[in-house]
Model the fold of this input.
Amino acid sequence: MRVLLAEDDGITRKMVAAMLRKWGYEVLAVSSGDEAWGVLQGDDPPRLAVLDWVMPGLNGVDICRKVRSEMLGTDRYFYLILLTAKTSREEIVSGLEAGADDYMVKPFDPSELHVRVGIGKRILTLHEELVAAKEALRFQAMRDALTGTYNRAAALRRLEEELDRARRDHKPLSLLMMDIDHFKKINDTYGHLVGDAVLKETVRRMQSVVRSYDVVGRFGGEEFLVILPSADEKIAVQVAERIRAAVSAHPVTDDAVSVTLTLSAGVATAESASSGVDALIQSADVALYEAKRTGRNRVCTAAVLRAA
Done:
């Protein structure tokens, strides 16, 4: 683990740095509070800092206060240890209130510093694990468990966001509603495990041909939606045809089973001042129904939505 050491006294700085390196830490040593603050504002700063209380420029307490105020609301946490010659209770309390996690009074015992830095390391490790677990839960809450693409709720949130952006930027947005043809027959004929394999492979093929900023989501069952930012009806039809061709290009194989797939799609396009999510979904759904009604394995379009 990397440690930032800020100490203006050269002898103390070299001594503490040598101790930290001996204990296996990578040390970045600076001689002023301004230098320390510059390091902490960098792209990938050390998360554990040992700061002298009294230094040229910003002092250790100033740095603690700035770290806590400017990093508020982020997932980045810094463990801050103050080194101080101050011994009064009021001064120590003021340092802790400023945001220090711990303090040590000079002169200090090396074994005590070893333990206190080790506590900081352990707390930072636990914090990183907590952040990773939080991110994993957030990811799971947004994803369809089977296919790994956006689930219905997350896809609808993305659609709302993209519609808002389209309005701000005065650009079109298109939505594809896509449905695997005769999916119930696939389940009834080959079983649900094969059906699951078909759903996963369908999503993989869809994602392989859409643009990098398009959004694929599972709307429910064998029905999917694809959000196409900055796409007018012509572009949306091209994307829908590309997806349809990719899905039906060759059968899905699962063990000894080979399943031929086709896909039907409905296209709806909203201009920048158009109505909301429900109207766009309804329009795309009507177009999808028309594709199903007229023979499946095709793309049908809805009228462009305009503000009333």
In short: DSSP finds ten helices and twelve strands in the chain. The mean pLDDT is 91. Residues 152-301 form a domain with the Alpha-Beta Plaits fold (CATH 3.30.70.270).
